[in-house]
Write a structure and sequence with these properties.
This protein has 23 helices and two strands. By secondary structure, it is mainly α. The protein is globular.
Length: 470
């Protein structure tokens, strides 16, 4: 099937001058470049996108592109509601999902649950390097799916440093950390709430939680196995040979205490129970009465509220740990994307994507996946996912078809592109930070040289999987 995306019409009811569209395109490119150079210009994401949202809104109003009349006449429950022009353009459910999920995970981690799981797996390995790599790799994938990429990398990366030092295997640490960093982005594909691109694209496409998991799981399993196999070969991580070595390693890891981080056994059990109930509720949201109308954002915020009861007298300390930079970044990003839609920038990019979208249901999604991955490797994958999701949603054939391979091409590309360079995702950046913390030498070019074979294989597997399942 050949897809021809239409030029998006201006919400203000008149044609947009091509010069104005290209002006806003330049503004969008400028924002993406600034995000790519975030560390160089010493500015947070929220500040960068906030400045560009101010410019976009001001210039959009100057050229009469924004639908002030529509917002001004908004009626809810029979009552007129006055809203600022930038409020309706924000996807508040995405904001609620991120806020609620991050709060829930942060509070639950205080129960010691995730540390307990990590130490238990370390002891299960018996100190064998290869078994430890496999267990840590699987743990990285699961933690990335249940928590988030950055939290998973911090927990597993820190434990890797401690464990390998205790086992006198510090020379293997670079391999462990790199493989774990790459697997965070693979694990980030597993569920609808594993990564921000998943949330944005999945919600726009209308993909249900269970459907997302069933589609992504086979690829994640195969990609994890291949990545671990390649890592073991390339970094020469093998099993212990003699009984004496195995006994010595087992005695060393036996010294780990999985209960050390548990302050309250009662809260530990409550945290474990709530984690399973949270995942189950998220998976069943569309089937549960009342909840299906309130949506995933409500579920995330409700479970965060329930967990806060345990720390009700000091709840404010958790509010201080919320990633406000990320939340404000999203609010401003949605505002920018909304203005770009009214300026027909998304329609223009859609026209440029015509050659890819016109290749059919095989070559088209495959090309879009690779293009998304390359773009994600050099800049933030979140605005890329938001922009492409908005463009695809404007194509009638795709908007009504959540099973279309084009949606999955963006999801796979946006996540896996983070494995090409250390700035491609926050989790690979954290992995490199931990590597430098342990005084291991690894430059930007060195990361690309080592990671590129993994990334290429993962992308080839993703393209093959997409073609087989579409």
């Amino acid at each position: 099937m050949s897809i021809s995306p239409p030029i998006l019409a201006s919400a203000s009811g008149h044609a947009v001058d091509p010069g104005v569209t290209y002006l806003f395109l330049a503004l969008l490119v400028g924002m993406i470049l600034c995000l790519a150079l975030e560390e160089k210009i010493h500015a947070k994401k929220s500040v960068i996108v906030g400045v560009f949202s101010i410019l976009a809104l001001f210039i959009g109003t100057w050229f009469h592109l924004l639908p002030f009349a529509d917002v001004g006449s908004l009626v809810i429950g029979g009552h007129p509601v006055s809203l600022p022009i930038y409020v309706p353009g924000v996807d508040w459910e995405v904001i609620a999902i991120i806020l609620g999920s991050s709060l829930f995970v942060d509070i639950t981690s205080k129960s010691g649950l995730f540390t307990w799981v990590a130490v238990k797996l370390t002891k299960l390995s018996g100190g064998d390097p290869l078994r430890l790599l496999v267990l840590y790799g699987v743990m990285t994938v699961i933690f990335s799916a249940v928590l988030n990429n950055v939290t998973a990398m911090i927990i597993v990366g820190s434990l890797s440093g401690v464990s390998l030092k205790k086992l006198n295997r510090s020379e293997k640490l670079l391999g462990f950390l790199l493989i774990e960093g790459l697997l965070t982005n693979v694990g980030g594909l597993l569920t609808l709430i594993s990564s921000v691109p998943n949330i944005i694209v999945g919600k726009t496409a209308g993909i249900e939680f269970v459907d997302f998991f069933m589609k992504a799981a086979p690829y994640v399993i195969v990609s994890t196995i291949v990545t671990l196999w390649m890592g073991a070969k390339l970094f020469k991580i093998s099993s212990l040979k003699s009984d004496e070595e195995r006994a010595s390693a087992k005695a060393l890891v036996a010294g780990f205490d999985e209960n050390e981080g548990i302050e309250s056994p009662g809260f530990f059990r409550f945290g474990a129970l709530m984690t399973f109930v949270f995942i189950g509720t998220v998976a069943m949201t569309s089937q549960l009465p009342v909840i299906n109308e309130l949506g995933l954002g409500f579920v995330a915020l409700a479970f965060a509220g329930l967990m806060l009861i345990r720390y009700k007298s000091v709840a404010d300390r958790f509010y201080k740990t919320i990633d406000w930079d990320l939340l404000f970044f999203f609010v401003c990003l949605f505002a920018v994307i909304n203005v770009m839609e009214h300026a027909q920038v998304l329609g223009l990019i859609g026209e440029w994507l015509k050659p890819i979208l016109g290749l059919g249901d095989s070559a088209g999604p495959a090309s879009l996946l690779v293009a998304s991955a390359v773009a994600s490797s050099v800049t933030d994958n979140i605005p890329l996912a938001a922009m492409l999701a908005k463009i695809l949603a404007g194509i009638p054939e795709l908007a009504a078809n959540p099973d279309s391979p084009y949606w999955w091409a963006v999801i796979f590309g946006a996540n896996l592109g983070g494995n090409i360079t250390p700035i491609g995702s926050a989790s690979t950046l954290v992995a490199v930070t931990i590597i430098h913390k342990y005084e291991l030498k690894l430059s930007f070019a060195g990361f690309v040289k080592i990671a590129l074979p993994y990334a290429v294989i993962q992308l080839v597997l993703a393209v093959a999987y997409l073609l087989l399942t579409s």
